[in-house]
Amino acid sequence: MQKTYLCIDLKTFYASVECVERGLDPFNTNLVVADKTRGKGTICLAVSPKMKMLGVKNRCRIFEIPPTIKYIVAMPRMKKYIEYSANIYAIYLKYFAKEDIHVYSIDEAFMDATKYLKLYKTNPIELAKIIIKDIFKTYGITATAGVGTNMYLAKIALDITAKHNPNNIGYLDEEKYKKELWQHKPLSDFWQIGKGIERRLNKMRIFTMYDVAHTEPKRLYKEFGVNAEYLIDHSWGKESCTIADIKKYKPKTNSISNSQVLFEDYSFIKARLVLKEMVELGSLRLIENNLVTDTVGLYIGYSKDAIKSTGGTKKIINYTNVYSELLKAFLEIYDKTTNRNVAIRRIGVNFANVIETENVQLSLFTDQEKIDKERKLELAMCSIKNKMGKNTIIRGMNLEEGATTMVRNKLIGGHNGGE
Asked: Which DSSP state fits 309?
């Protein structure tokens, strides 16, 4: 049986929510979602469709908006956007079982519509229209949709062809894809082809999906390794992965990571404090989820683009989730590899090879009583934070100058949570 997928996107989602909340039409309102307290260099998380019509690009910076355009600046409210997203997901559940829905992002989702077309006695275009109409009627948010015979084609139909149709719905099967998009440029318009991959393909004199499809596979495998398989399949409009496959997938190895862009340039000493805070948050997350790690990784990015990032990984002798042990490993990497003479702007931490605590054997060479005592203390901290709020119990370092934890505890996804 030929599969049928829908991929639905909520158009300029954050900006549309802010317009709806103000009783304004996103297509007739100049509005950007940005935290202007961070200065004119802050990135706009979204701009309204009207702003796009005036040539303002999504994800631009405030200073890049022409001064001749008057517009509303809406402070990001991530709680509100999550609320809208959850409510719209409830609309999807009216038409599909959750097993046939894959939430791709806060504003985008895939649905396997194959078995529902007969049930609703309709075709996929009409079904997409019904759902889009339901979303707009209920929440005032405009949606677009891609329909395809596999997930890749549904996504490409959404990203490339839907915008050219008056009903905001695009459709692609393999033959239509080859006929209409084999010569499409640029390659970065296609799902999973970023600017970097596009440049590498261009150096190989490959400029279209037709070129990819008709390039000797050995050349592609030499350049991209195993990822060449996806490039080749996608160039022919093929995709074997299904929503059922995604639901069943379990990674062989797990990791937990966290990163942040600092509010300003930080010195070596001040950034070291932030690193301590980030390790503490990672430790609490591991303990709360009953997980341990034996490998940690650190990334340090500098204010000057000319300076290469530093960091590295370190293997810990025993699996652990205890703050003191993790911090020791991170500080060894930080003190050994970090450039002390250049301002720091980005920090990333990673806890790799994560497994459940029950799978770890006790070691004869560790003070298990001391470790258990520290772990119980941190578990108690997790419990208090979950019940009373993340900032109800903090360490002394969180009050030092340059500390970021208390501010970031109020953020969602790195942005203002709002009300």
From this structure: P
